[in-house]
Design a protein that fits this description.
InterPro entries: 6-PGluconate_DH-like_C_sf, KARI, KARI_C, KARI_N, KARI_prok, NAD(P)-bd_dom_sf. This protein is an alpha/beta fold and 337 residues long. It contains 17 helices and nine strands. 57% of the residues lie in helices and 12% in strands. The longest helix has 30 residues. It binds NADPH dihydro-nicotinamide-adenine-dinucleotide phosphate, ligand LWWEY6Y5 and magnesium ion (2 copies). One magnesium ion (MG) binds next to helix 10.
């Protein structure tokens, strides 16, 4: 294998237990990191603005909550887990004035460093611990004695010890139980954005909605279309997750496998592949980042419009009704945040 992978035996938890960690933000990732670090014996403080709706959640969990500036001033390791679009202002106003030689600035995603929105001073370590999964799963896996694999990267190694510190942090959230893969901020940012846009979120949502539309527009029952295009997707993806596409194909019928082999490439054809390359180009050139920052600064008009359109899609109403009949499906994904 060409990548370097680190496990529990390669990480010294003592390195992060000897520091004070400020987790800035207490959402999907923030709550998972903070609770798991605390359970790993790390001294954690949460940074949230006065009036943040996340404050009561963190306090209910027994965590000490300060403003981001106070938390950054107290801590040696500052993990930035606020939304990507909030990080630049947060950094300038609350973190930068509290950085000093010997401190470390950590991220869960490389967006702001990769696109030059945050430029930390040379005397601090800059590293990333990016779990490859949603925060609620990161916490659930840790609590179950397991872990979600994560990426670790070092952008600036002022102390000469930044990778070891990042691995210690990854161990504290369960990441090295599953494996921490060494990468760069550029590789993490570009692949993460590509994955969520083209395959995992954008690609998968559009595939599901379009399949549902084709069946219902042809007169089939929405409930049957929902099972075919959304519900069963999890069962199929679980098989891929366990044993790759090969295991999924082994498990499905010959009829399904022949349909897969003969029709799949008509759906995801060369036009789709060209569009994926175009999307990757927009990520690499910074065009997507500029567009997203401008959209956010304008009050997110398109984001809100598309969000509302997605929520109003008929598949949501059908799904809500069907999931209500399947008590085993409606497992809450939130633990505390
Ligand atoms: N979601 C995920 O699973 C993954 C996320 N990441 C990365 O992790 C980071 C955090 O994302 P995610 O967990 O989804 O974020 P969420 O939107 O779930 O949570 C953001 C948190 O930050 C708080 N917050 C908002 N503005 C500020 C601010 N100015 N200062 C301090 N705190 C603030 C929010 O508080 P309030 O409740 O008041 O809004 C909330 O607690 C991002 O860099 C993201 O790319 C990486 C891998 C996966
Ligand atoms: C797939 C979406 C993600 O990249 C993630 C959970 O890893 C995100 O930014 O939320
Ligand atoms: Mg991701
Ligand atoms: Mg992402």
């Amino acid at each position: 294998m060409s990548v370097e992978v680190y496990y529990d035996d390669n990480a010294d938890l003592g390195l992060i237990q000897a520091r004070k960690v400020a987790v800035i933000g207490y959402g999907s990732q923030g709550h998972a990191h903070a609770l798991s670090l605390r359970d790993s014996g790390v001294d954690v403080v949460i940074g949230l603005p006065e009036g943040s709706k996340s404050r009561p959640k963190a306090e209910e969990q027994g965590l000490r909550v300060l403003t981001p500036a106070q938390a950054a001033a107290e801590a040696d390791v500052i993990m930035v887990l606020a939304p990507d679009t909030a990080q630049r202002k947060l950094y300038t106003e609350s973190i930068e004035p509290n950085l000093a030689a010997g401190k470390a600035l950590f991220f869960g995603h490389g967006f702001n460093i990769r696109y030059g929105l945050i430029k930390p001073p040379a005397e601090v370590d800059v590293a990333m611990v990016a779990p490859k999964g949603p925060g609620h799963l990161v916490r659930r896996q840790y609590a179950d004695g397991k872990g979600v694999p994560c990426l670790v990267a070092v952008e600036q190694d002022a102390s000469g010890n930044a990778l070891a510190l990042a691995l210690a942090y990854a161990k504290g959230i369960g990441g090295t139980r599953a494996g921490a893969i060494k990468t760069t901020f550029t590789e993490e940012t570009e692949t993460d954005l590509f994955g969520e846009q083209a395959v995992l979120c954008g690609g998968a949502s559009a595939l599901v909605q379009t399949g549902f539309e084709v069946l219902t527009e042809a007169g089939y029952a929405p409930e049957v279309a929902y099972f075919e295009c959304l519900h069963e997707l999890k069962l199929i993806v679980d098989l891929m997750y366990e044993g790759g596409i090969a295991k999924m194909r082994y498990s499905i019928s010959d009829t399904a496998e022949y349909g897969d082999l003969s029709r799949g490439s008509r759906i995801i054809d060369s036009r789709v592949k060209d569009e994926m390359r175009k999307i990757l180009g927009e990520i690499q050139s910074g065009e997507f980042a500029r567009e997203w920052v401008a959209e956010d600064e304008a009050g997110r008009p398109n984001f809100k419009k598309w969000q509302a359109e997605g929520a109003a899609h008929p598949i949501e109403e059908t799904g809500k009704k069907l999931r209500g009949m399947m008590s085993w499906v409606d497992r809450p994904i939130t633990e505390t945040a």
